[in-house]
Amino acid sequence: MKHAFFTPDFEASNAIATPQLPTAHLPALGLDLADASADQTIAHLLAPGRRRAFFMNAHCCNVRRRDPDYARAVADADVLLPDGIGIELAAKMTGQKLTANLNGTDLVPALLTRAAQMGKSVYLFGGTPGTAASAASRLVQDNPALRIAGHRDGFAGAADAEAAIADINDSGADIVIVAMGVPMQEMWLHQHAHRLNAPLTLAVGALFDFLAGTVVRAPKLVRRAKMEWVWRLAQEPRRLAKRYLAGNFAFLAHAGKTALAHTPIADIQRRFLDLALSATALLMLSPILAVTAVAIKLDSRGPVLFRQTRIGRDGTPFTMFKFRSMGTDAEKRRAALLATSDREGVCFKSRNDPRVTRVGRFIRRFSIDELPQILNVLRGEMAIVGPRPALPSEVAAYPARALGRLSVKPGITGLWQVSGRATIGFDQMVEMDLSYASSRTLLLDVALIMRTFGAVASGRGAF
Predict the structure, then answer these.
(1) Which band of pLDDT confidence, cut at 50, 70 and 90, is reported for residue 7?
(2) What pTM did the predictor assign?
(3) Which segments constitute the Bacterial sugar transferase domain (predicted)?
(4) Is the peptide bond before 183 cis (omega within 30 degrees of 0)?
């Protein structure tokens, strides 16, 4: 046999040498899911050793709750991959954000491209008669270097498990992809994967149908909007209505209930306060937001909103929104101005920053430039009250003690913001933020929000 060299001792030694794939535990789902980029995941799956990988979406989680056999199959898998907007929303319920959406339709073709470069072969098992063959043809058309070891349908071809196992092993395949639908495909692998010689086995759902062209995938615009499930529902409303309508509602309700059970009551109260205040502010301040947008557009060329990567809770990067108060070349000029900072320490701040526009000086004076961060609060990336979010370059230069600022969500306002803003030195700012993080209460948050109005009106430290 081609894979006779995969002895238990060989696999054990390689399991030690192979870096572990980063994972995240999602309390809302009770699952440990891969928390890695597509490239990291592919490298891990194709590394030496045996692995069984399943993709987990909202439907899979619903089936797992009611089917104990499927739940056992999921628990026995080596790698669980987050698939779809439902998993992303479940993570957000407990303030988590996974690195990537690792759906099978995108990940598996990329994995097979890399496998072909490594000289590995693949066996396709599942689908209606002829679908696996058509999928194999499409894969080879897109990637001529890929070796198809064999294919077999999931109906008559799956009726005799012994014959299917023998055919797969005789093919010498390095990778076996099973597409029989949830939960059959995962349960088949749970029962038989240990008898397959292939080091990597995957359960992939509707991938073969997409590759064969029997089901048309949603346009990229729809996928980017994370609404692919709506496209699939429109294609097969009768078959998929229960899964996507009733199923999605049941999934979110259960995930939300579980998330609440794992969330301290103070965090729930604080999040409610954030949502209530930010939604109200967005409505009441909409005239100011509109006038500011027009003024920025008339004053200088460039976009109205400025987007910048900042570091949030637990070191997670996110895109922060502000009204643009500088010229469009501000980031390029920043390095040359670092020596002119009026604040001691890591964080740059210049009272006479030449990059600031005329409108920019006004909206900075009254903190109007910060208002778009209401969107970050609504998205759960920021809070109303918390340490100001730092740049990645600033966090990289932090002393160890300053990293404690990252233990809570960054905020629009906070203790040092109402105490002098840019006039506060870096070391003092860190101590204030650490003090807030260790003793914050809902009452303290409300007090800081009230003090913010006075700080904005005085303009102290606003530049």
Answers:
(1) very low
(2) 0.75
(3) 270-456
(4) yes
